[in-house]
């Protein structure tokens, strides 16, 4: 399947444009002629090649200020495929993913990453398409004592790194309820909080309400040593007000761990997180799963298509956008990868001062209008033709 997929849109452009044409494309598409690519240690590039994952690193410098020092943070985004077939025992599947991801995290640490985010439901196959409860619900785990958390807590404390771990959560306190949750682990290995997915898709194979409903944690922003971070999980990227509320709560970096396949909304992928960064004057980090996953039993989508065991290719293409709308090239569409971005968080305020989008937004107006819109006897504000 991967052999039939385009490997990288960004690489395709670089292979076919040179000189001034490439610079002009960069200016129009990425928002800057120079992608500010940073050097990666030679031994890490070799290690990535040996273990079949790519590494790229880019810089987002801010203007020098008189009263504030630069606030430099390195973020890391990991996209990866599953490690072994989905018909293997659950413990073996999860352990194989742990082994794969650990190698990438070690390289991220060696490159100085401060905040690392994994993809949606990173420690399991994206089995929600099947709508089968067995065995997939067995991947659900505790936020505090689950195997994914324990695995990452050790790495976070070892490397002094904040790690965001999107998992399938088992809430044992509340009747074993299942949630789609992002766990935030600080650089000392302590779980400082969680956020549950606010918006649940009911689109074709992505009918995830079989497993979990909309989250109940609001729009939390986590104060960390490396800045104020938030997580907008997957389908939430389609909802502008979801992005807005993380900005209202003061986020400087919003991660969007996702799992989305080619042929569905790929034309939106490069747009939504970028738009959010512009509208809310913060950095956004869009992370997508990669690879094609096949399941033991056929399933249908309720869309008239024949039953199938695969529901598409996760196209990776993870990228980072700055508050001014400039962005990095994306990672591969077919290969595991680590994307590192060096951010100066001072840019958030600088762009707020320059463009004034946050200052000129009318939250009072929106709040009043939305308060009316949710009423059962709401009358839309429409004027007659005559």
List keywords for this structure.
386 residues; alpha/beta; Nitrilase/N-carbamoyl-D-aminoacid amidohydrolase; 7-stranded mixed β-sheet; 5-stranded mixed β-sheet; Aliph_Amidase/BUP
Structure overview:
With 386 residues, this protein is α/β, with parallel strands linked by helices. The protein has one domain (36-373): Carbon-nitrogen hydrolase (Nitrilase/N-carbamoyl-D-aminoacid amidohydrolase, 4-Layer Sandwich). Helices cover 29% and strands 25% of the residues. The chain is built from ten helices and 16 strands. The chain has helices at residues 9-16, 19-29, 42-50, 90-110, 147-159, 240-248, 266-280, 346-355, 357-360, 363-373; strands at 53-60, 72-79, 115-117, 162-171, 177-185, 191-196, 202-203, 206-207, 222-224, 227-231, 253-258, 283-288, 290-299, 308-315, 319-321, 336-344. The strands form four sheets. The protein has a seven-stranded mixed β-sheet with strand order 1-16-2-3-4-5-6, sandwiched between helices. Strands 9-10-11-12-15 form a five-stranded mixed β-sheet, with helices on one face. Strands 7-8 form a two-stranded antiparallel ribbon. Strand 4 and strand 5 (177-185) form a beta hairpin. Helix 6 (240-248) runs parallel beside helix 7. It starts with 8 loop residues before the first helix and ends in a 13-residue tail after the last helix.
């Amino acid at each position: 399947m991967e052999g039939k997929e385009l490997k990288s849109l960004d690489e395709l452009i670089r292979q076919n444009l040179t000189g001034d044409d490439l610079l002009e494309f960069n200016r129009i598409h990425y928002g800057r002629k120079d992608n500010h690519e940073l050097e990666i240690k030679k031994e890490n590039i070799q290690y990535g090649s040996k273990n079949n994952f790519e590494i790229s690193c880019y810089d987002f410098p801010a203007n020098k200020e008189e009263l504030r020092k630069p606030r430099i943070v390195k973020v890391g985004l990991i996209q990866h495929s599953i490690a072994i077939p989905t018909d293997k025992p659950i413990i073996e599947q999860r352990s194989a993913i742990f082994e794969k991801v650990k190698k990438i995290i070690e390289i991220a640490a060696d490159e100085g990453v401060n905040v690392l985010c994994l993809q949606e439901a990173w420690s399991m196959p994206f089995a929600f398409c099947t709508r089968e409860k067995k065995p997939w619900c067995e991947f659900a785990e505790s936020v505090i004592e689950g195997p994914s958390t324990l695995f990452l807590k050790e790495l976070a404390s070892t490397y002094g790194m904040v790690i965001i771990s999107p998992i399938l959560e088992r809430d044992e306190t509340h009747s074993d309820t299942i949630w789609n949750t992002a766990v935030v682990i600080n650089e000392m290995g302590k779980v400082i909080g969680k956020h549950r997915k606010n918006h649940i898709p009911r689109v074709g194979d992505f009918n995830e309400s079989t497993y979990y409903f909309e989250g109940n944690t609001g729009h939390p922003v986590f104060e960390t040593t490396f800045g104020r971070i938030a997580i907008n999980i997957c389908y939430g990227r389609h909802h502008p007000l979801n992005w807005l509320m993380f900005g209202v709560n003061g986020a400087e970096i919003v991660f969007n761990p996702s799992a989305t396949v080619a042929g569905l909304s790929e034309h939106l992928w490069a747009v939504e997180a970028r738009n959010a960064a512009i509208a809310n004057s913060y950095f956004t980090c869009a992370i997508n799963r990669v690879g094609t996953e096949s399941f033991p039993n056929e399933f249908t989508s309720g869309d008239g298509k024949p039953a199938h065991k695969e529901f598409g290719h996760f196209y990776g293409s993870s990228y980072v956008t700055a508050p001014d709308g400039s962005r990095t090239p994306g990672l591969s569409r077919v290969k595991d990868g680590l994307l590192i971005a060096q951010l100066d968080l001072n840019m958030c305020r600088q762009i707020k001062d320059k463009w004034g989008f946050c200052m000129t937004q009318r939250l009072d107006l929106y709040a009043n209008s939305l308060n009316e819109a949710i009423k059962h006897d709401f009358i839309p504000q429409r004027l007659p033709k005559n």
